[in-house]
Design goal:
Chain A: It is found in: Nucleus. Chain A: InterPro entries: NA-bd_OB-fold, RNA_pol_Rpb7-like_N_sf, Rpb7-like, Rpb7-like_N, S1_domain. Chain A: Keywords: DNA-directed RNA polymerase, Nucleus, Transcription. Chain A: Belongs to the eukaryotic RPB7/RPC8 RNA polymerase subunit family. The complex is a heterodimer of chains A (177) and B (473). Chain A has 177 residues and is mainly β. In chain A, 10% of the residues lie in helices and 51% in strands. Chain A is built from two helices and 14 strands. Chain A has helices at 22-34, 173-176, and strands spanning 2-13, 38-39, 43-54, 58-59, 66-77, 84-93, 96-101, 104-109, 117-120, 126-129, 135-136, 141-151, 156-161, 168-169. In chain A, the strands form three sheets. In chain A, strands 1, 2, 3, 4 and 5 form a five-stranded antiparallel sheet that branches. By secondary structure, chain B is mainly alpha-helical. Chain B has two domains: 4-157 and 256-472, no CATH class; 166-242, Herpes Virus-1. Chain B has helices at residues 4-17, 38-47, 54-61, 65-77, 90-103, 105-114, 118-125, 144-167, 223-245, 247-257, 267-281, 289-294, 305-311, 316-325, 346-349, 357-360, 369-374, 381-413, 416-446, 453-472, and strands at residues 52-53, 81-88, 135-142, 174-177, 183-185, 209-211. In chain B, the strands form two sheets. In chain B, strands 1-3-2 form a three-stranded antiparallel sheet, with helices on both faces. Classes of the chains: A mainly beta (177), B mainly alpha (473).
Chain lengths: 177, 473
């Protein structure tokens, strides 16, 4: 699920950036530092949408670095248990398959794949129904439900299932476009 | 076409799902707001009515309007009933009353007897001092089609939830290292994946992991496993109990599945149909509701309009009065309309005169269905066919009644306290309603009044049920 929230961060800025465009430099550094990171509490920071406020800088003794407390608005993505996501399959093996929904990696183990789908090893390992009408392989798009998350300080990993109504390969062409 | 199986469905569902609910956020503020069991009473009452004004229903059930409204709103949210609000003057209320009287004559009679009927009659009497004041009135009736779906959906969700729990559908897969016995679960696999063969390898000994089987873990006897086993048992038990306790409901659903759903239509449509039928029956004098009130009772308007028109004026005295007035020739009933529990004149039977339908179809003799069927082989062929159909319908209904009676006993035994409450309420209601419904029957025996078919069908069945309920209490 996506959230638009305000976060705060202390930014250290090298003295060489002090000048007319100090603020721009600060924002650029903030984006570089923060975007794409993951925190266990808030999830993945997808994008910074604006700066709320920049506090007073504090000069560090000895180094000359200045610390600014910056409040910024950002979009975060955090997966939840029970959430339905659409994801792209990245790898298939006999234990199941891995998929990615944006920054989050999801594993679907083979007992959470419908029973009528069998693992086919070979050049392109895949899961296929007995009649061959549905195939899950690398680059397939699937709709899955998250049934468990492991959230570390810097990493979020999910396990999902496609063994439920309306889950599985997204075959509807309208849904993918 | 029959509304009866659906009414049975509603009653069963009411007892199964709405017996112990308490509406409102403060369950026991005072005794007056204690409305456990009211839901069942209200739903039962609605099965005996069609579109009914909330105030009238409240009066009928001797409930406070507020309390009833709360219950009804709950049912509206549950999508069991259809509700229509409209602003109306005393005059337009009359339209409803005239329609209402036609359909629920028994009810109006008794209400008058109780001295409670004043509001109903106001529509007619108050015409003189025609007030332009607008009042918002709410009407409600059961939405049979939707009830059918709601009940089925509810059962489906219950079953699905329990099955999902049983299947451990959302269980997290565990993996075991065959060499060193270290366990992992699916959440760890992101760091176990080996790029060489795309399989999972143990962090410690780099052996390939195998998925742990469900029943293999049973021997381990860990607390975790035991807990899972216990919850499995719990859900299994719950599922079994659900199947047993809701069996009558499921059976009724299956029976009802292929039947055409009785469609009451919107309030306006219903009124229009009722009025049209009333006019047809009374030779155009249907404009005045008072005139209708004393006259014929009519079939409930549960089917297509054309059928209802055919049925109107079905009653013997109603028909004969119309005939005396010379307003309208008596209608000949088509054979498929002739059912158990109808009193028919010769004219209505039309060319079937010669056949002793009248006696054999005595509404009060409905208890010996079976004998009748056996003793009537000498009837003319096609009439016999029609009669057999009607007989089988009646027979199936009786069978259902017995099963349902048993099921009622079962259902209400689940919640003794609440059941008692509801029974007391039911009792009141039952007495009230029975009295109302019996009134025309008694009068019928004295030959002055007509029999509402609806009532005929209802009485015996009603009594059955109420009897059972009381035994329980």
């Amino acid at each position: 699920m996506f959230f638009h929230i305000i976060l705060e961060r202390n930014m250290q800025l090298h003295p060489r950036h002090f000048g007319r465009d100090l603020r721009d430099k600060l924002v650029a550094k903030l984006m570089k530092d923060v975007e794409g990171t993951c925190s266990g509490r808030h999830g993945f920071v997808v994008a910074i949408t604006g700066i709320e406020s920049v506090g007073k800088g504090l000069i560090r003794d000895g180094t000359g670095f200045v610390t600014f407390p910056v409040k910024y608005q950002c979009v975060v993505f955090r997966p939840f248990k029970g959430e339905i996501l659409e994801a792209v399959v990245t790898m298939v093996n006999k234990m199941g398959f891995f998929a990615e929904a944006g920054p989050v990696q999801i594993f679907v183990s083979n007992h959470l794949i419908p029973d009528d789908m069998e693992f086919q090893s070979g050049d392109v390992p895949n899961y296929t129904t007995s009649d061959g009408s549905v195939k899950i392989q690398k680059e397939s798009e699937v709709r899955l439900k998250i049934i468990g998350t492991r959230i570390d300080a810097t990493e979020i990993f999910c396990i999902g299932t496609i063994k439920d109504d309306f889950l599985g390969v997204i075959s509807d062409p309208g849904a993918t476009s | 076409m029959s509304i009866e199986p659906f009414n049975r469905l509603v009653k069963l569902a009411a007892r199964a799902f709405y017996d112990d609910i308490t509406k409102g956020d403060n369950p026991s503020k005072n005794t007056r707001s204690d409305n456990r069991g009211i839901a069942v009473v209200v739903l039962d009452a609605l099965t005996r009515r069609q579109w009914v004004r909330e105030e009238d229903l409240a009066k009928d059930l001797k409930l406070q309007t507020k309390q009833l409204r709360r219950t009804l709103r709950f049912f509206e949210q549950e999508k069991l009933i259809a509700v229509d609000h409209r602003k109306e003057t005393a005059k337009s209320a009359k339209i409803y009353n005239s329609a209402f009287n036609d359909n629920n004559n028994y009810y109006v009679h008794s209400a008058n007897g109780n001295g409670n009927g004043s509001s109903i009659n106001n529509g007619g009497n108050g015409m003189g001092d025609d007030k332009v004041k607008m009042h918002t009135h709410s009407y409600c009736c059961l939405d049979y089609a939707q009830i059918h779906d709601v009940v089925r959906y509810r059962l489906h969700r219950m079953r699905k939830y329990l099955r999902d729990q049983l299947d451990d559908k959302n269980k997290i897969q565990e993996y075991l290292c065959s060499d060193c016995g270290k366990k992992y679960n699916a959440l760890d696999v992101s760091r176990l994946i080996s790029m060489e063969d795309m399989n999972f390898h143990c962090e410690r000994c780099n052996a390939e992991l195998v998925a742990e089987m469900d029943n293999a873990g049973e021997g381990a006897g860990e607390g975790d496993d035991n807990a899972r086993k216990r919850s499995r048992e719990k859900y299994n038990d719950m599922l079994n109990r659900m199947e047993v306790q809701l069996k009558p409901l499921v059976e009724q659903l299956n029976r009802v599945k292929d039947l055409a759903v009785p469609e009451l239509g919107s309030l306006q449509a219903w009124e229009a149909r009722a009025l049209a039928a009333a006019r047809a029956a009374n030779g155009g004098s249907g404009g005045d509701p008072r005139a209708n009130q004393g006259f014929g009772t009519r079939m409930p308007f549960v089917g297509e309009p054309k059928i209802e028109v055919a049925i109107s004026g079905v009653d013997d005295t109603g028909g004969s009065i119309a005939a005396q007035n010379g307003n309208e020739p008596i209608k000949v009933l088509p054979p498929w309309m002739i059912k158990q529990g109808m009193k028919l004149t010769k004219e209505q039977l039309g060319e079937l005169k010669e056949e002793p339908m009248d006696g054999s179809l005595d509404p009060l003799g409905s208890s010996d269905d079976k004998k009748k069927a056996v003793t009537e082989p000498e009837d003319s062929k096609h009439v016999q066919e029609e009669f057999m159909k009607a007989y089988y319908a009646a027979y199936i209904k009786r069978e259902q009644e017995t099963t349902v009676a048993a099921s009622d006993a079962h259902l209400s035994s689940t919640e003794r306290l609440v059941g008692e409450k509801s029974k007391r309420g039911d009792n009141d209601d039952g007495e009230d309603v029975e009295w109302e419904e019996e009134a025309p029957v008694d009068e019928n025996t004295s030959g002055n009044f007509k029999v509402d078919l609806n009532v005929e069908a209802g009485v015996s069945e009603e009594e059955d049920e109420d009897d059972i309920d009381w035994e329980e209490g």
